[in-house]
Structures are given as C-alpha cells and as structure tokens.
Amino acid sequence: MPGVPAVSFDTEPSRYRHLRLETEGEIAWIVLAVDEAAGLRPGYELKLNSYDLGVDIELADAVQRLRFEHPQVRAVIITGGLDKVFCAGANIRMLAQSEHWWKVNFCKFTNETRAAIEDATGHSGQTYLAAVNGTAAGGGYELALACDEIILVDDGSTAVSMPEVPLLAVLPGTGGLTRLVDKRGVRKDLADVVATRSEGVRGRTAQAWRLVDRVAPPSRFTDTVREAALAAAARSQRLPGGPGIQLPPLDRQVSDTMISYPNVTADIDRAAGLVTITVRGPADEAPPDANGMHSLGAAFWPLAMCRELDDLILWLRTNEVELGTWAIRTSGDADAVLRHERLVEAAAGEDWLASEIRHFLKRTLKRLDVTSRSLIALIEPGSCFAGPLLELALACDRQYMLDGVPEDSGDATAPAAIVLTAGNFGAYPMANGLSRLATRCYGEPGRLAKLEQETGRPIEAAEALKLGLVTFAPDDLDWDDEVRIALEERASLSPDALTGMEANLRFPGPETMETKIFARLTAWQNWIFTRPNAAGPDGALRRYGTGQRAVFDRKRA
Amino acid sequence: MPGVPAVSFDTEPSRYRHLRLETEGEIAWIVLAVDEAAGLRPGYELKLNSYDLGVDIELADAVQRLRFEHPQVRAVIITGGLDKVFCAGANIRMLAQSEHWWKVNFCKFTNETRAAIEDATGHSGQTYLAAVNGTAAGGGYELALACDEIILVDDGSTAVSMPEVPLLAVLPGTGGLTRLVDKRGVRKDLADVVATRSEGVRGRTAQAWRLVDRVAPPSRFTDTVREAALAAAARSQRLPGGPGIQLPPLDRQVSDTMISYPNVTADIDRAAGLVTITVRGPADEAPPDANGMHSLGAAFWPLAMCRELDDLILWLRTNEVELGTWAIRTSGDADAVLRHERLVEAAAGEDWLASEIRHFLKRTLKRLDVTSRSLIALIEPGSCFAGPLLELALACDRQYMLDGVPEDSGDATAPAAIVLTAGNFGAYPMANGLSRLATRCYGEPGRLAKLEQETGRPIEAAEALKLGLVTFAPDDLDWDDEVRIALEERASLSPDALTGMEANLRFPGPETMETKIFARLTAWQNWIFTRPNAAGPDGALRRYGTGQRAVFDRKRA
To answer: What is the mean predicted confidence (pLDDT) over B99-120?
Structure first.
C-alpha cells in the first residue's frame, strides 16, 4: 500500500539473517539460527528460533535454490542452530500485533513453503528430514511435520508440542492438525491430546503416538540423522542433467502505477481496485534441445517468466491488499510458447531442470488458485493463452474472450485464439490432484474427453464458448462494456464474501491434504483470528506473556 | 441459557404454522406458506416464505415423519404455497439481529435438514423434488438444491438466484456453493456468475447451466411436476413392511440442573460448563421379530432412545451454549443392546422400519460429529457401550475407560467392557463415508482389519487400550482425578479454538460433499459472519433494506 515500505521476497544465501544453507555432496542442511533482532517489522524479537514472514522468505528461498542450484542434493536436513532449540513456531508478539489480513497472508505463505518442502520430497528427489534437536513447539513442530521423516532427540526433556490451543487460543494452523491425522495417521483422539497439552510429548511416547519417526539419544543423534539422510538420498529418484543453474536477482521495477519485469507487467488502477497482469510470450526462439535450455539457465523463457510471475503474486498479495481484482492477460506468439513447452515436456522425464521448471510452474499456478483475489482472464487478439499460459486463464474465476477482431485493428489482426496441449490435461495439477480442465469439467467428464480431441490447434471465441472453455465471448461492440461492468461489479462486492466464495468454488471434486490445509484448516483459523477469545484485547494471543490470563466468552459457536 | 425461553424442537403437522404436509398415495407435498407473523423470536417478519429456525424445525419434522409415519410415500414435492414465491431463503433481519452463535447454530441445523432430505432420497426411497413455482432466492434455491430434481416454472420472470454475496456480503452457506459445483456439476466459472448476480438466472439458461433439471411453462407446470414425481416414485426402492408408525410427543422433563427422558438423562453442572449425558440401555427384552418391532413402534428401544438423544443434542446446542463439554456415559445391559441391534440389522435389508431406525441413528450420530462441543466418553462399570452405543464413544474426542472395578463396589460388579459388532464397521457411516472405527484407524488400516476379528465379546480396559479403542484407561486410584483434570482442562480452553480444532480432527481421510458443507463452507461462512463487512454496523447484512449501501473495508484477507 502506498506509504508503507513494501516487502520484497528477494534474498539469497549470502544475505540470509536467519538460517544457513550448507551442502555436502548429496546432503544439505538448513540450519535455523534466527537473528532475534532482525524481525521484518518492528515490535517483536524473534526469540527461540521463532519466525516471521522474513524468516519464512529465507526458508522458501533455500528450498527453491536447492532444486535449481544444487541438483546433486538428494536429502535435506532441517535442524536448529541454537542450543536446545529446533524452532518455536510463528512469533507470538508478531501475530498479536498484526492486522488480520497480514496474519492470513503470512499463514498462506508459510503453508505454501511447507507444501513446497513436500513437493521437493515428492517430485524432486530431495527428501526433507527434520532433525529435532531441541524444542519444536507449534509452528516449529509443524515445520517438522512437513518433512518426510522426523528424528527427535531423546534427552529426557525435548518435546514436540502444539501449544496453540492451550496457550494462544488459536489453531496449529500451518497444516499441523491436518498433517497429524491425514499425513502421519495419528489417531484422532491422541491428536486431540497432543493439541491441548501445552508441554507436548517426548521420546518414546512421541514415537509410539506416531508424532515422530525415530528417537535417538544425544550421543547417537547426529549419526542417526546422517544415516537417515544417506538412506533417503540412496532412495532418491532425482533425475540427471548436469550441474545447477544460478537464480540471479530479478529485474523488478516498481512505481505507484506499475510493477514490471522483462516478461511480466502489472498495471495498477487503485481507484478501481484493479491490477492488470500481462504475461508476455517468449521474445526469443526456443533452444533446440535440453542442452540449450541448460545454457540459458534462468534466462530460459519458461523459467524466467515463472520466477517473475511467482514474485509478482507474492508482491501483490503482501503489498497491495486493496487491489481486489486481478485481470490476467497475455501477449505474444502462441507458437513460440508451445515450442518452449514441447522442449520442457520432452525432457521433463529425464532431465532435472526440465522437471523442475514444470513443477515450479505447477506451484506458481497453485499460488494463483489460493490467492484471495478475484481472477478474471481477458483473452484478446494478440494474446498467447496456449498450453502452460492457458493454465493462467483456467485458474481464473471467469474467462472473457473477444469474439472476432476490433473494427479498427486492420486486416492483419487475427482473432483471439487459445490452444490446448497435452500439458493442460495433467502436467500442472491443482491441489485437488486434478488438472484445471478436469476440475472445470468436474460435472461433465464427457466434455473433458471431448476436449482431449481438440489439442494443438487454435480455438477461436465462438468455439471456445461452445466447448465450455470460456465464460463469455462478447464481440467487439460489447467487449469494453461487458468487461468494464464485470470488473466494476467485482470491485463493488464485499472482499470477505468474495474470498469465501472463491475458496469454495475453485476446488470442486476430490480433496487432498493440501486442499484441506488451504481451504478447511485455514478457514477455521481465519475465523478464530477474528474472534475476541484469541485476538481481542483480553484474548489469549494478546495476553500471552503478560502474566494475565485470557478472558473467554464461554459461548460455543 | 437461564432466563431465556428455551427453544423446543417439538412439533407435529397439526401444529405447523409455516407449511402443509399433504399426502396422496405414493406422493407427498410439503407446501411452504410461511406465516409472516409467527417468527420464533421477535423483531422480524417472515415475508416471502423466508425462514427462521422455527420454520426449519417444521421442515425437519415433516421430513422425519414422512419416513416413519408415511412409508407408502415414494416421492416428495417441495413447493411454494404463496403467489409467485417458492422460498426467499433465510430471513435477513433475523440474521442481522442474531448473535454469532445463534447464526452458526441455525445454519448447522438447516444444513442438517437439507442433508436429511438427501438422506431420504438416497437411502429411504423417498425422492425429493423441488417444484420451483416462484422466486427461489438464496436459501430458497439452496433448499431446491437439496432435492434430487429441480423443476422451474418458465414464465419469463421466475429465477433461481444466490444473492447472498452481492446483497448481503455473506455466502450461500446452506450448502449452496458446494452443491452447485459438487452435486450438480455446474461449471465453476458459471457458478461464480450465479453467485454474484443478484437477479439470478431464468428458464432455459438456468437449465443449460445445470442450475435446474427441467423447465415448464405455467400451463404445463403442475403436470410436469406430477409426472416427474410419479416417475421418481416408480423408480423408488422403498422397502415393504406395512403401515406407518406414529411418533408421539417426547416425554422430556427440564429443570435448571437436568433434562431427562425415559432413556436419556443430561445432568448439568453450569459452574463447570459441563453436561453429563447418560444413555440407558433397554429396560425391556427385545421383541422376537420384526412384527414385534412394528407393534412397539416408537416405544421400540432403539427408536425411542434415538429420538430422545436427537432431541437432547438439538436442545443443548440451541439452549445451552455455555455448556462446552459433553461427557457421555451409558448404563444398562450390553447384551440387551446387542439383541436389539441384531433384530434391527437382521431386518434392515427387507423392512422399512428397521432400515429407517438404522438410518436415523446414523443421522443422530452425525449430529454429534458436527456438534461444536467437546465430547468425552466415560466408560465405567455398569455401562453398555456395545454395538450402536459404542458409536457414541467413538464419536467422542476422547475415550476414558476405567480399568478394573472401584474398590468399594463389591464382588458383584464386573469391570467395564465394550463390545464391537459388525455394525461398527459400516452400519453408521460418518459424513466422510467411513465408519467411526475406520476413521479412527485411518492411519493404520491393519489395525482396523485386526479389530474385525474382535467382535461379539466383552473387551475390558487394558485390552481396549492396547487395541486403540480408548485413549486412556486409568485404574480406580487415578480415575476420578484424571477425569476431573481432563474436564477442567477442557473448560479452561478457548471455546472457539476447541471448535476449530475438533472440526479439523474429527474427519481424517476422504471428503464428501457433506464434509465440505459442514467443515469448509461453514468455516468460511462463520468467518464472514464475524467480519464487519457483513455483520458490522455498516455491513451489508445490517444495512440491507435500509436504503443505505454497505461500507466495505477493501482489504483482501
């Protein structure tokens, strides 16, 4: 927002304040040693490896760089770098002093980072292990839960705990409750005990209750962790493809009315509460083969575009909370987009970089899916909604496609067209496990089967409408008015109601642990964050650490 | 709460103020003709067939009586009895003036009633049809969505609509958003349009968008509805078993410290925020066969007990919102419980009454699952947690089972024991589609398979603990302290945090439309209900009908 210093998501290991990224052959360590004095905002100290958004930005950066810059790594150990402390979770004073929207946005990003850890384990052959060498409380234990294996030091005192409900009157909302029962299969009555017992659970009991996978005495702890990491590395299916590529700083220009990158631009209309995002197709021809892709590295268009889009999503979510509608456009040559996609898809099964690029785009699109903004695709002549870029339109709440060409555009202008590719049917699954097309056709599987026959050719507006690929297809006479009215209407509606509506409509069909975390656990946490029992002046979140007990309204809702 | 007149759920067709229940052979009509002046609480008029809790109590009663009192009915038509009005949804002034907990509880009950309509269609051979003969707005259209078939009058003006987001800044939260995309397969972008367009969708467009199943002009409407109902009745698999049984008024005694029925008692400890519910096993022997069950009718213990328990759940939820913990006990002869269960189970595949009793218990247990109170099972000597009554314990957040017998209880006292039956493995599925045992063993399917070998015999505390059937098994020395501490601890925690925690822990594993409605849609709605944009003094819910526009905080969270 104007006047408030913007939060940047830029960082790199040499600038980390809160963690160390160390690699040794196939193993990497992320060592949490949070700088108490280096909170992102004033007003709190990051004691006991507690975290704020700034800490999580570094963690997300490390997870991302490991995939692109350190392809030799096959197992990643997260551990604490302070004495007797693994991680104490989200900083409580930070939460207590934060605006509601900040808390919600912070939790969303931390949830995405933990999902990225699981994505690395599941799809990148980089298996995460939590070496819990000291207190793992709340979000600290939830961070461990995002790892594939949890090893707890059995020193008679170190516990894993979820003290949120008893101490703070909020939930273990960074996936904690869901991962206990759905990922780790902790029995639900034991999960109830864990989530209400502030002191947590230690040693063998923690193991018996499935809260951790192994315990080891202090004398054996380091060796046990290393053995587990080497075993995980040995199981890894990480693809070959040569050395890592560097992820240089992004070239981002910001003014009051525009945020621009080489391949992505955001035009801001504050009065309308609107940002128009334009993603540009490739300026250069696709390289001939995977070697050429490796040579280009971060300059390879799919990766460069995706990094910029990812950064823009995070920037807008955090710094522009009053821009409630994102109109999404593309411009460029659809064929060039498709040639890049073909190169990535052809190599994705055998080359780590191609695979990483595909999964990165998948994760970026998932960020869009859970973004609490109205997303409207505008598909116009000159656009290139083809293959991977068509996913941007499909991620939107509505798709408007101009039928025909504007009268004054001259004979050379071709009408807008979209192109389906095989990638649209599975390369970029949503959190519900379905492709965006399958989700769109959830009620009409026959329609999905029919669409599979329509790949590889331009589909113009009238046909796209008939195929159910777009919501509306106004012609040139109606386009401006219809789009304007839709955007104005959106801007007139309650931001909260839209957030709730979109969260419910975007994920028909099956549910997964991920959708449960983002849609169910998060919704309950958001509710609790608004309730006086937690966030009011006498609530537990505000009174924590003051020596005064919280005062609760005892009415159950 | 003391001092406030309690809401009773007692009603019967002759006392209905808001609807008529009419039957004609295999067809029944529920005709909504809401009495504007007969709101349950003061301060609003129930115009245009809008509803409050009082209206929904009658609707729930009609749905229930059709299953037990009118077994010949195979299709039920819900229609509007006012000119040009089907139903305008939940009364807005009622919502605007209601406390948060009232809104949440009201929505839960209305959701349960709509789920009961779908349960009748799915499991009772009583298929519901909505004859939308006039305005179906918001909750009115959501009521239609709970029906198996929606027939819309095509008169050029009648629309189905979801004006909640644009007019009230809340969600179509009575299952509307979920049923659009998950039940009816409405494309999600079209659902977005429907849920933001206050005037709704008419005629052929409503049909093309899958919002309704058929349209008919006014001249053909009645015939079309009747034909559809007769066709549904012809498809019905309703079981035989003779004439209906009567559901007489419940014998409920209420004092400040106790609510008691013949088979169920609730002891209230207001200071502790605790109610202790005791369900008693059968006083009489089970009848020899299904004929005997029919003769007993509503006096047959499984049905009598279930009606009382169902009523008590609703009573406590609505009238005792500060009693945050429900301790659940049983007393009686486990063998007598099992003999009744065997009779019901043996007949459930071929006799409508046995089938209805089983499904009714299933629905009552589901009410427990979504009850926003902490549920603690206390399993002591003299209890009868066997088969169907064991489900009560399994629905709880924790199970405490006394190991051994109290020292002063004499030689005749047998230790507490529980009994598994085949019914525990599937007769009473939860909303997630799994049995409570399967849900409990979600992370350890091998444990579930092992439990199937353990049916039909008493299992005492130590073994129950080992089998994972109970959480804790203190002996007589520890029992009182351990239970007391658990109950006191529960009472000390934030009611909101407990509600959110329990809602997330009670449903591991698969999700269904029903869990999505109760856990996801409801959580978002609850959040929105707390936000000033809806419920604040300048919010849309409060300003609706005043001529003043709502003022929104535009920050997106």
So the answer is: 97
Listed by number, the residues of chain A in 472-491 with a beta carbon closer than 8 Å to a beta carbon of chain B are 489-490
pLDDT in tens, A251-261: 999 999 999 99
CB neighbour burial string for B524-536, b if at least 16 within 10 angstroms, e if fewer:
bbbbbbbbbbbbb
Residue A549 pLDDT class (50, 70, 90 cuts):
very high
Instruction: Pull the structure tokens for residue B120.
Output: 């009748």
- With bands split at pLDDT 50, 70 and 90, how would you rate the model's confidence at A141? very high
Contact criterion met (CB below 8 Å) for B135 and B145:
no
Q: Rounded to 5 degrees, what angle do the CA atoms A331, A334, A336 make?
A: 105
In this structure, chain B runs to a length of 557
Encode pLDDT of A91-130 as tens digits: 999 999 999 999 999 999 999 999 999 999 999 999 999 9
At residue A348, the pLDDT reads 95
Is the dihedral angle over the CA atoms A329, A331, A334, A337 positive or is it negative? negative
Q: Which tokens hold the place of B287? A: 């009848």
DSSP state of A181: I
Residue of A313, A369, A524 best to disrupt the B interface, most CBs of B under 10 A: A524
The minimum CA-CA distance between B132 and chain A, rounded to whole Å, is 23
Give dist(CA A447, CA A444) in Å, integer: 5
Closest CA to B181 of A438, A398, A516, A504: A504
| Burial zone of A446 (CB within 10 Å; 0-12 exposed, 13-18 middle, 19+ buried) | exposed
Instruction: Give the pLDDT confidence of A493-536 residue by residue, as tens digits.
Output: 999 999 999 999 999 999 999 999 999 999 999 999 999 999 99
**Rounded-to-integer distance, Cα B362 and Cα B115, Å:** 12
| pTM > 0.95: yes or no | yes
> How far is Cα A476 from Cα B504, in angstroms, rounded to an integer?
49
Q: Residue A516: its chain B contacts at CB < 8 A?
A: 511
Q: Is the pLDDT of residue B524 over 90?
A: yes
Residue pointed to by tokens 């009868």: B384
**Paired tokens of B266:** 């609730």
Question: Mind giving me the DSSP string for A366-412?
Answer: HHHHT-SSEEEEEE-TT---BTHHHHHHHTSSEEEE-BS--GGG-TT
Quote the percentage of chain A above a pLDDT of 70: 99
Structure-token pair, residue A242: 């040569």
Reported confidence tier of residue A4, pLDDT bands at 50, 70, 90:
low
> Dihedrals φ, ψ of B539, to 5°?
-75, 165
- B1: pLDDT strictly greater than 90: no
Q: How many residues does chain A have?
A: 557
B440: which 2 tokens? Answer: 């409990």
For chain B, give the longest Cα–Cα distance. 79
Q: Give the Cα separation of A515 and A175 in Å (integer).
A: 10
Question: Confidence class of residue A3 from pLDDT cuts 50, 70 and 90?
Answer: low
d(CA B96, CA B90) in angstroms, rounded, equals 11
Contacts of residue B444 in chain A, CB cutoff 8 Å?
185, 187
Contact B557 A321 (CB under 8 A): yes
The DSSP secondary-structure symbol of B125 reads: S
Residues 6+ apart with CB under 8 A from B113: B56, B59, B60, B63
**Residue B406, pLDDT score:** 80
| Single-letter residue type at A533 | N
Q: How far is B518 from B497, CA to CA, in rounded Å?
A: 17
State the smallest CA–CA distance between residue B407 and chain A in angstroms.
28
Q: What pLDDT is attached to residue B412?
A: 74
The span from the first CA to the last CA of chain B, in angstroms, equals 35
- How many whole angstroms separate alpha carbon B68 and alpha carbon A90? 54
